[in-house]
Amino acid sequence: MTWLVTGGAGYIGSHVARAFLDSGIDVVVIDDLSSGHEGFVPEGAVLERGSLVDAGFVERVFDEHPVTGVVHLAGFKYAGVSVQRPLHTYTQNVTATVNLLSAMQNHEVPSIVFSSSAAVYGNAPAEFVTEATATTPESPYGETKLIGEWLIADQAVASGLRHTALRYFNVVGSATPVVSDTSPHNLFPLVFRALLAGQTPKIFGDDYPTPDGTCVRDYVHVADVAAAHVAAAQKLDAGETLAPAYNLGSGSGVSVREIMSEMAAVTGIDFTPEVLAARPGDPARIVASGELATGDGLWMPHHTLTEMIASAWQAATHAG
């Protein structure tokens, strides 16, 4: 059994690849290293460096490896930036998915676990987002993730493809000090880089309709997210039918300001964040119920917020 992990040199993808290897499943990674790192690819995984936008490259990878399933994480993942770069976002997230599904069909690969996002919900009005909540994305990034779900579902009707999508919320923490979140846009690495440089961390917007005016998010540990991918893959391999999409959420929200306070406590660095203008495309609140995924045996969050911050800080300081 060999699973292809697209984006497997990235922060989340490398954790997923490690979790598969730890479960005794062989891994091939596709990554163009535009945001991933070759050093993040775990020992034992095969790295194929290239882009999913290159259909010929994708076909070659499937020609050369006995792929039995795919976890599709690769993509352009920055909601705010996608507002300024919609064409790039659609190419990286939609065209690439078409190429991947085409190669899967040509090579009769039966299963895919898709990395989706809470961004498909947009600024959801519900107190807790469930899989039944209306999908109203507010950024090109969120739109492309929803289109990816549609593409996979349509291909399943046409070909019998076994599939599910895992809608992530804010993925943080680390399962190993050698892999850290290096995104130039995510909250945790932004704060840690500022602290390590002796600078003041920034909050983007404090006039949202939330209790303290800052965005409220649902934070989940990357190791728990990786374990959910393995569980989904194993169920698809066993021929089980899964729901089209699952939320990987904790059911509780934390504001950006609250995160900053906990970071000060964990790192031992006292600071008062600087408040800047809100970024376009950022919803005020996204908190999700993970009950469906838990009930189907895919999801169980095991880490506290303090543990998430502490493990992320350890990885950030190890890398720095």
Automatic annotation (TrEMBL):
Catalytic activity from the UniProt record: UDP-alpha-D-glucose = UDP-alpha-D-galactose
EC number annotated for this UniProt entry: 5.1.3.2
Domain NAD-dependent epimerase/dehydratase, residue spans: 3-249
Pathway annotation: Carbohydrate metabolism; galactose metabolism
GO molecular function terms noted in the UniProt entry: UDP-glucose 4-epimerase activity
Pfam family, one: Epimerase
Cofactor entry: NAD(+)
InterPro entries reported for this sequence: Epimerase_deHydtase (IPR001509), NAD(P)-bd_dom_sf (IPR036291), UDP_G4E (IPR005886)
SUPFAM superfamilies named among the record's database cross-references: NAD(P)-binding Rossmann-fold domains
Domain of life according to the entry: Bacteria
UniProt KW keywords: Carbohydrate metabolism, Isomerase, NAD
Family to which the UniProt record says this protein belongs: Belongs to the NAD(P)-dependent epimerase/dehydratase family.
NCBIfam families associated with the record: galE
PANTHER family, per database record: UDP-ARABINOSE 4-EPIMERASE 1, UDP-GLUCOSE 4-EPIMERASE
Name listed for the protein in its UniProt record: UDP-glucose 4-epimerase
UniProt organism field: Subtercola vilae
